[in-house]
Amino acid sequence: MNEVANKTGIFPICSKISLEEREFRNHQRCFVVLLTGLPASGKSTIATELERKLFDLGKHVCLLDGDNVRHGLCSDLGFSPEDRKENIRRVGEVARILANLGFICITAFISPCRKDRKMLRQMSLQGRFIEVFINAPVAVCEARDPKGLYAAARANRIKDFTGISAPYEPPLSPEVEIPTHKLTVSESVAMLLKHVLSQCRNGF
Amino acid sequence: MNEVANKTGIFPICSKISLEEREFRNHQRCFVVLLTGLPASGKSTIATELERKLFDLGKHVCLLDGDNVRHGLCSDLGFSPEDRKENIRRVGEVARILANLGFICITAFISPCRKDRKMLRQMSLQGRFIEVFINAPVAVCEARDPKGLYAAARANRIKDFTGISAPYEPPLSPEVEIPTHKLTVSESVAMLLKHVLSQCRNGF
Asked: Is B111 known to be catalytic?
């Protein structure tokens, strides 16, 4: 009986279906794919296209968007450093749940801090976390600015904007790096798809 | 642009894969199954057996246990009324995510309050929530007491224990009611399985 059970009468129950059984049925390994990068670097575009292509190839795949959870699971959280960290922690918990259910779970959000990305990696099963650096220079992202966010940040209408008024810590050793200023969207997606497929076929 | 996006630059992105596509591939409808009832009424036993049987029938199914999430997603929460409500809200959010990904999502937890169960129903897609009342008299549950929790509650070592020192509000119109004091485990699981299968075949 663990500490929580001792104090509260909370006993976890265990599914009788193992991860191995789910993977065997789905004919694929499962893991978490984190797309990190500056605003307008191309994360969401690549994530949605990657999900579509994997689904069309018969894979069990889902997209857990850091922004979408803000409207549901994390609707109680604000944007203080503590709340941002808690937001990432919850995304990590749900990503783990989804990967343990046999999905390739794609998550896309800025996640500017190395220590937060490290936390996400540590929350995942060993060897089942793919960090993808969606890399474009800030000048390129700012020139794209499809949502007008960089302009708003320059005008001080958005505070602590990553890349302008808040730091982005580039990954030091990501599993994949996609230079979206040098590649088309199709090329970027194809590059990432190739890597993901090699991982999910591993052993199947 | 919604309010959150206005203030924060948070824009939700949308998966390009619809629920209909996932259901079509999985050959099943998906929904949330909530098992509610007193401690030791049989929720966890029935939930794990139901998941196993559905999986063996080729269904896409998962078990989201109210106690398990206490150790992960809700590890920041205590047992105050506010925290209990937040716990249920997060379980509901994750259940919705899972059902929207094509799963039959079984959730098992006491959930003693009608208004909380109503909230869970409202969080689910219309017509995709099955409330299952695992019903046994408190005297029967107390006689079972496999974890010694009723004894601990009688000795005041656990406070606010549902059925002893905290109220349980029975469902008024559950989709299914399983009287576990009158049925064996096998009979209980078979009864629920029959209902769930009728729902997930609907239209497939």
From this structure: yes
Whether A82 contacts chain B with CB within 8 A: no
**Which residues, 6 or more positions from B170, have their beta carbon under 8 angstroms from its beta carbon?**
B133, B135
Look at residue A53 and give its three-state secondary structure: helix
Q: How many domains, in total, are found in chain B?
A: 1
**Is A171 part of any domain?**
yes
Chain A residues close to B14, C-beta within 8 Å: 48
Distance CA(B87)–CA(B110), nearest Å, equals 12
- Nearest-CA residue of chain B relative to A6? B158
The strands making up A31-36's β-sheet, listed across from edge to edge, are: A61-65, A104-108, A31-36, A129-135, A176-179
Residue B72, number of CB atoms within 10 A of its CB: 16
Positions in chain A short of pLDDT 70: 1-13, 66-67, 203
The rounded Cα B129 to chain-centroid distance in angstroms is: 10
Is residue B67 within 8 Å of residue B109, measured between CB atoms?
yes
A64 neighbourhood in chain B, CB within 8 Å: 97
Query: Any CB–CB contact under 8 A between A83 and chain B?
Result: no
B193 contacts B106 by C-beta, under 8 angstroms: no
B16 part of a folded domain: no
The reply to whether A177 falls in a domain is yes
Residue A3 placed within a domain: no
**Parent domain of B86:** 22-201
pLDDT at B71: 82
Instruction: State ipTM.
Output: 0.88
Token reading at B67 = 């106690």
What's phi and psi for B196, nearest 5 deg?
A: -65, -45
Instruction: Choose the closest CB to A17 out of B14, B51, B70.
Output: B51
C-beta atoms of B8 and A79 within 8 A: yes
State both tokens at B54: 């559905």
User: By the CB < 8 Å criterion, does A101 face chain B?
Assistant: yes
| B65-to-A2, A177, B87 alpha-carbon distances in Å | 17, 37, 11
Residue B35 clears pLDDT 90, i.e. is over it: yes
Residues 107-146 on B with a CB inside 8 Å of A are 108
